[in-house]
Amino acid sequence: MFGIEDPWIWMAYLLIILSALACVVYGVLNWNKDGDDTPTEADIKWAKEEDKIGDEL
Amino acid sequence: MDISVLAVVAILYLGVIGYLGFRGYMATRSTSDYLLAGRTIHPYVMALSYGAAFISTAAIVGFGGAAAVFGMGLLWLTFFNITVGILIAFVVFGKRTRKMGHHLQAHTFPELLGRRFNSRFIQGFAGLIIVLFMPLYASAVLIGAARYVEATFDGVSFEVAVTLFSLLIAGYVVAGGLKGVMYADALQGSLMFLGMFILILFTYGRLGGVHEAHRQLGRLPSDIEAGYQELAPTIRALAPEGLDDDGLLKWFSEQITVYRSSNALQDEAAKADFIAKHPEAMAAGALLASHPVLRSKLAINQLSRGGFQGWTRMPKWGSNFFYVLVTSMVLGVGIGVLAQPQLAVRFMTVKSSRELNRAVLVGGVFILSMTGVAFIVGNLSNVWFAKPENGGAISIASVPGGNIDLIIPSFINSALPSWFGALFMLTLLSAAMSTLSSQFHAIGTSIGRDVFERGILGLHQHQSTVLITRIGVILGLLVTVSLSFLLPAGIIAAATAIFFGLCAASFLPSFVGGLFWRRMTRAGAIASLCAGFGMSFFWVMFVQMPKGQIPAILANALLGRPSLLSGPVLGIHWNWTEALVVCLPLSAITGIVVSLLTQPESERHLALCFDGIGADKDQSA
Fold it and tell me: What number is the ipTM of this complex?
């Protein structure tokens, strides 16, 4: 397959393409899942401190 | 290429990145703006920002060059990069890291571990490991970029290239590059995408397409053997009588060593005398110079002794090459990515788990086009260089000193159009800068926040923290640059693998336990961290021989031996085995056993850590 004889090699070649495709499929299927946009108090406090660290750097 | 091109490209690059960074900064003035003010960030930007920090010149130049020697088996690392480094990292680890990080108000990776286990020691010690060892990985990235400049621009030595890049990094840091504006990172990721896409198109195009290029690569060892057999009678005429085939090749190899040593002689009279005393070596040298296939044959002969069986075949089972490829490169780097401090913190900056779901889409394709392309091109460079019109010898025999770090740069300069050289310069500048900025960010926050202010020292003097953070970044930069000069040639892949392995053995069990196992205790995490780091350090210093060849540092310095375990023990060559393979399981077992023997953490603390995560999520629903 792909001009490669050793199955351990063409399998790796095939799997890198399939795994990248799996990422695409996962992204499409879950595009709108887990979207919790309401920030909690912890999120607000965290973000402000993160800004401070960034500015100081 | 002229050095002025480098200057123009570098200035243009800094200008555009600076402008975009400023625009991005003004548009999304702060993290809180982004996270809290209802703004959205495109998943492409998030994925490329992460990917650009993940993939560096170490992956493209260092591992791409290693692929030219280890063969296409290195594609298993790409498979791990995508499945572990993107899919599992984003979906399994990323979502919990983000939630727990926010609940615990953690801003660095050591702080996340420290707060999860209520331990200033963990935060400080983990920070110290990052401060001390991150420069090793940063230097691998810097060397990768410098090797490209060295190979591309006329009259630029490696030392000058490292100095130029160091100045660029310093300029980047001073210009606020450490703030990590996602849009600037995403532009860098886009440049990397573009450069690598063109690279693979050209490479396959020049070699007759995917199938044909692979077929030529698979046939290359037998073509070289056939070329050698044609010349064998000529060599035999020079050699002493009675040598068998192996003996003849060995004799020829020895004569070439003698011939090359004559080139090192400076004194003309001494050289003439040496030549007169070694007529066979000079004749063998002349034969080698006029028949590049002999250089390939000698190189393959040496690789075969390590277990090489061809570029489209896995190395021989149990050989030196097999251990280095599988344990160090594939497993060490492939699994080690999960515990990379500069990457784990990126999950905390996303707005919701939805962003991570979306980023997986782009992330997988991005990694495929980075390491997948680099490793395939590294392999196929052999076919290109072995063609008579391109020199006639395989990659490792075509680059100065057999330095594998020069293979990708040399291939791009000779096989691709010159305009691509300048574009690829941008690709590599982006790959280097985006990773280096995340590394120096990690070094700075580790020394300031984790070690000094909140960790081991616990000195709550905020003004001093800022100063110490800045000093930490400068010192980190100096150590990185110094290491770039001190490390041996062809070290990029090995240095990266060592750092990834060290991080995995030290941090991964407590990171996994912290996110997924409520029963993991502070004592268990401390034991795992200390055992993982201690054993890894011991392994790297006394047992593991980087690249399966370089002596372990302290075993060599203190005991005069390349490794404490030189031969096989219980049928395993431990000296070729990556620290991660041995130390990660031991570190995990230590963490589990000590946790089960000690009191669980308080329910109140666990409720805070796991609020909205796992079982707590189900309860709250």
Answer: 0.90
